[in-house]
Amino acid sequence: MISGEIALYLFMLAAFTGHEIISRVPVILHTPLMSGSNFVHGIVLVGAMIALGEATTPVQQVIGFIGVFLGAGNAAGGYVVTERMLEMFKSSKKEGAK
């Protein structure tokens, strides 16, 4: 089990690192980058479910539920964005037309 102080340091380090990485990505690349990294959202969702499973107090359970809810929405939204992006690259011609 990780102590609360270490968990806080890890959270702060992850938040800072994530902000630094994303802030350096050009705006034009945000959609392809995020839609191509749906596996990261899945890992976050699994981590939130594990944290929710180990929650012992009602406050921890509420925070864990919010984490699972937001992680699931983020992963599902990534797949929706990927589908919309792939639709843009499909040919607009019908198969029978020349």
Automatic annotation (TrEMBL):
Main location: membrane
Keyword presence, Glycosyltransferase: no
Subcellular location as annotated: Cell inner membrane
Residues spanning the membrane: 6-27, 62-81
NAD(P) transhydrogenase alpha subunit C-terminal domain mapped to chain residues: 8-90
Catalysed transformations (reactions): NAD(+) + NADPH + H(+)(in) = NADH + NADP(+) + H(+)(out)
Membrane topology: Multi-pass membrane protein
E.C. numbers: 7.1.1.1
Keywords, ordered alphabetically: Cell inner membrane, Cell membrane, Membrane, NAD, NADP, Translocase, Transmembrane, Transmembrane helix
Coiled coil (residue ranges): none
Record keyword Cell membrane present: yes
Superkingdom, taxonomy of origin: Bacteria
GO cellular component, one term: plasma membrane
A GO MF term: NADP binding
GO biological process: NADPH regeneration
Annotated function: The transhydrogenation between NADH and NADP is coupled to respiration and ATP hydrolysis and functions as a proton pump across the membrane.
Record-given protein name: proton-translocating NAD(P)(+) transhydrogenase
Source organism per UniProt: Tahibacter aquaticus
Lineage, broadest ranks: Bacteria, Pseudomonadati, Pseudomonadota, Gammaproteobacteria, Lysobacterales
